[in-house]
Specification:
single chain; 403 residues; alpha/beta; 6-stranded parallel beta sheet; 14 helices; 33% helix; elongated
Length: 403
């Protein structure tokens, strides 16, 4: 089957179009600290507005557990969306009911309204399909057509993602199209050399990705907290560093499998360790096999890859034609432990081919460290959805769109 796209809906002029975006942005004191997902949603919305559609935007934000929580309101997101669209975007503090119905009914061609956080209703994320469908039916009353454009949630069976597109003529927006085009290149037609860089805290979060991509890549570079489980799998002591003991045997299997396939798994040769998990903790660079024997003692905590490792990673990344990176190399939020992440990010900007930042913490890191989105081939909005795609898992929110 073929993914249904916006063109399949025909003219949207004068029609109410519900657009499921992913506007789940970080907020601090009511201020958006990273508007990447809002900016990524603009393309589809601009297209619909230009066509004269009456646009109803729905999204979630955070995990309010089915209750209205002021700090998770989409009001500041609606304001930012208005700035990016250079248009008046109205906001409704509800998703269903008389007030929402009246607001949608009053839309003129080309106007946009943002409804309140979908997850203020427990039915949005309910495990009960009947509860989800009932909520989806209420949402469907707002529209003539449905466009799914929140790639970050297509791996979820949720009312606005799975049931709603089954109730109205539906299609994928341009954001989902572009995400899929990139991910299919990563899995089906990558230019070589093909390098995957994995970081983040837990190796258990990346097991499926490692298993699915090992037969497809040339090099796998491992940093972040997960590197210590790899070091332990090689017999090294890791002090007080993050370690998933129950995954050591599985990691040893990956190392053996990579060797059999001729895939290069590159592990750190040096790490930055600290006396505590703190921005101003005493820290030092030590060999990867010398964490417990460092001057900081047996409890030393690894918080970043070392400078020699960072340089080696950068060399491999910059020489590759295809690179997928998911997960910071260290605790980039602390200046003393941001060097590894910043070095890899810089190398990714120099890839002569396709360099992909795999969403989530990686996207937040490159922006926090001063990089611009257009310095990279692609910054995914997917996070977990991107990883599940790369694991070869089914994505319910895409299946209902014909994919």
């Amino acid at each position: 089957m073929t993914l249904r796209t916006l063109e399949s809906l025909g003219s949207t002029s004068g029609k109410r179009v519900i657009v499921r975006c992913d506007l789940n942005v970080p907020l601090k004191d009511g201020v958006i600290t990273d508007d990447g997902r809002v900016r990524a949603s603009v393309g589809t919305l601009q297209s619909l507005v230009a066509d004269g559609a009456r646009v109803v935007v729905v999204s979630h934000l955070g995990r309010p557990d089915g209750e209205p929580v002021a700090e998770y309101s989409l009001r500041p997101v609606a304001e930012r969306l208005g700035e990016l669209l250079d248009a008046d975007v109205s906001f409704l503090p509800s998703t269903v009911g008389d007030e929402a119905e009246e607001a949608v009914a009053g839309l003129a061609d080309g106007q946009v309204v943002v409804l309140e956080n979908l997850r203020f209703s427990p039915a949005e994320t309910s495990k009960d399909a009947d509860e989800r469908r009932a909520f989806a039916e209420q949402l469907a009353a707002h529209g003539d057509l449905f466009v799914s454009d929140g790639f970050g949630v297509v791996h979820r069976e949720q009312a606005s993602v799975y049931e709603l597109p089954q109730l109205l003529p539906s299609a994928a927006g341009s954001l989902i199209e572009s995400e899929l085009a990139v991910l299919e290149k990563l899995t089906e037609t990558p230019e070589r050399p093909y390098t995957v860089v994995l970081g983040g805290s837990k190796v258990s979060d990346k097991l499926g990705v490692i298993e699915h991509l090992l037969p497809r890549v040339d090099s796998l570079l491992v940093g972040g907290g997960m590197l210590f489980t790899f070091l332990a799998a090689q017999g090294h002591a890791v002090g007080g560093s993050l370690l998933e003991k129950d995954q050591i045997e599985r990691v040893q299997g990956y190392l053996a499998d990579a060797a059999d396939r001729g895939v290069q798994i590159v592990l750190p040769t040096d790490v930055v360790v600290a006396s505590a998990f703190s921005a101003d903790a005493d820290h030092a660079v030590v060999p990867a096999d010398g964490i417990e024997t460092s001057d900081l003692g047996e409890g030393a905590i690894g918080l970043d890859i070392g400078p020699d490792t960072a340089a080696r990673f950068a060399e491999i990344v910059a020489a590759s034609k295809t690179v997928f990176w998911n997960g910071p190399m260290g605790v980039f939020e602390f200046d003393a432990f941001a060097h590894g992440t910043k070095t890899v990010a810089d190398a990714l900007t120099r890839v002569d081919g396709l360099g992909v930042v795999g969403g989530g913490d990686s996207a937040a890191a490159v922006r926090a460290l001063g990089f611009d989105d257009d310095q990279f081939g692609h910054i995914s909005t997917g996070g977990g959805a991107s990883l599940e795609f790369l694991e070869g898992k089914r994505l319910p929110g895409l299946e209902v769109l014909g994919w």
